[in-house]
Amino acid sequence: MSVGTQQQITHSIASWRPRLASAIGFGGPAARIARSAKAQAWPKRYAAYLWGADTAVILAAASVGVVFGDARPLTAGALAVVVGLWPFVLGLYGTREASVLGIGAEEYRRVVAASFQFFAVLAIAALLLGDSLPEHGAAGLLPARVVVFVFGCGLVGLLALRWGSRRWLNRQRHIGLYLTPAVVVGEPEDVRYVVRRIAASEGAPYNVLGAILPGGRRGQSLAVDGNRLPVLSSTDDVVRTVALKKAAAVIIAGPVPGGNKYVRELGWNLEQHDAELVLASSLTNVAGPRIHWRPVQGLPLMEVDLPHYTGAKHVVKRVMDLVLGTAALVVLAPVLAVLALIVRFDSPGPVLFRQERIGKDGRPFAMLKFRSMVEEAETKLDVLEAENEGAGVLFKVNDDPRVTRCGRWMRKYSLDELPQLMNVLKGEMSLVGPRPPLGREVGAYERYTRRRMLIKPGVTGLWQISGRSGLDWDDSVRLDLYYVENWSIMGDLMILWRTLRAVIAHVGAS
Fold first, then answer.
1. Least confident span in 9-13, 218-222, 315-319
2. Closest to 492 measured CA to CA, from 368, 361, 358, 316
3. pLDDT-based confidence at 20, cuts 50/70/90?
4. At a CB cut-off of 8 Å and minimum separation 6, what does 398 contact?
5. How large is the average pLDDT for residues 76-90?
């Protein structure tokens, strides 16, 4: 992993430096608690809590099915089986594994997949048992209305439970609790990169106790953006350091002396201390769902799926755009009408502002927004160029004098962007996607940056929920490219939900 690549994808330091101090073990009692042996037991306690909570939600859903669906003893007995097996199936699908808790869409995806497949098997079982119960049949054993009540209420309840539990867990992690005490092993630059990424990630499960460097000695420290990360030992003394510090994870940050043989033997030696070995992949733009392990004659090959830009998944994405976009326009129609009147009477000029943006495959289109600037704003752009505070090809001016009175509060809550729903219905944009670039930005793109245009731009996206105008150019590109290659339907739904929260909090709006 080159230093240049690391610098390119590193977040703006100022936005997460307070979290960096917490991530490397500073911050008083909370950090010390995370280091204790007791802290290593939190995944089992939390998994036990989730098992009980899942069961309670499913029991409540089954009760709804009995009360509003069918209260016959046979159906109630079948629902008792559902209450007993559904939480078990959720466990089989790994929905309570520590690796998926608190971050990413994988936990929700597993809950949905486990639930759908459980009820599919349940339906088949009901049909088979129905043949042996001719007086009742499959419909008598589990009537359709009962299945709809129980499955619908149960799945919604489980997802709501996991969302609420995740928020609580992340609040605990923010103060230094429910973290896995870890040491980071590797060359100084690789260690810095991993520590920065852990600090920048909301919900990252690690509390970094210190660094283990080739030739490192206890008492030294490693500078990480203004903070000092203690050096615990050299790479020859990892196991003893893990035992001494009661670490529960060893993160290999890059190439280490001894190579693969060293890593293999380290894994064997860590078994006695019940510590996990974590390898930081140099494939920085590849998400977990695209990575598969394929053992070939004892050789563990890591297979990375190529991203696809057409196919069934994109058809589903388009259907979701049409359904949700239409519903949003219908629900927001009164709001859109009121905003249009406010813009019309606030300042001279048209209600809608049409600006040429570049869409999928480099095709230009007219992006719609409520006009939030004076009518002659474009002609004043050259005058403000000297005050540009944006990075890269982005243009940004704080307290832009061209913004109208209503434009300031509309931008604060992103209300000016609502007309883009019409771009979504026309197929020019998607609800979720990369940021729609201007033509002059595309003209300055590097070759790899043009990959942003392999899919439709979005009304919202990772850039929207990760800082919006507070992002620098490199971060904006990194997030867009990551989305283009790793997007999923469940991930899109999470981004839409987080966008709603971000808009309400008007974080990073300009």
1. 9-13
2. 316
3. low
4. 389, 510
5. 88
CATH 3.40.50.10700 domain span(s) along the chain: 3-32+179-284
d(CA 264, CA 266): 5
Q: Which residue has tokens 């942003």? A: 452
Three-state secondary structure along 340-382?
A: HHHHHHHCCCCCEEEEEEECHHHCEEEEEEECCECCCCHHHHH
The predicted structure's pLDDT at residue 142: 67
Eight-class DSSP state of 12: P
Please tell me the distance from the alpha carbon of residue 411 to that of residue 356, in angstroms, as a whole number: 19
Instruction: Note the pTM of the prediction, 2 decimals.
Output: 0.66
Q: Which amino acid is at 343?
A: V
Is residue 245 within 8 Å of 35, Cβ to Cβ?
yes
- Please name every residue paired with 458 in a beta bridge, in sequence order, or none if there are none: 430
Rg (CA), the chain: 26
Tell me, which fold does domain 3-32+179-284 have in CATH? Rossmann fold (3.40.50)
Q: Which residue has the tokens 């992002």?
A: 471
Letter string b/e over residues 357-387, b meaning 16 or more CB atoms within 10 A of that residue's CB? bbbbeeeebebbbbbbbbeebeeeeeeeeee
Which are the contacts of 266, defined by CB distance < 8 A and separation ≥ 6? 238, 239, 250, 252, 277
Average pLDDT over residues 283-297: 60
The enclosing H or E element of 193 equals helix 188-200
Give the three-class secondary structure for 445.
coil
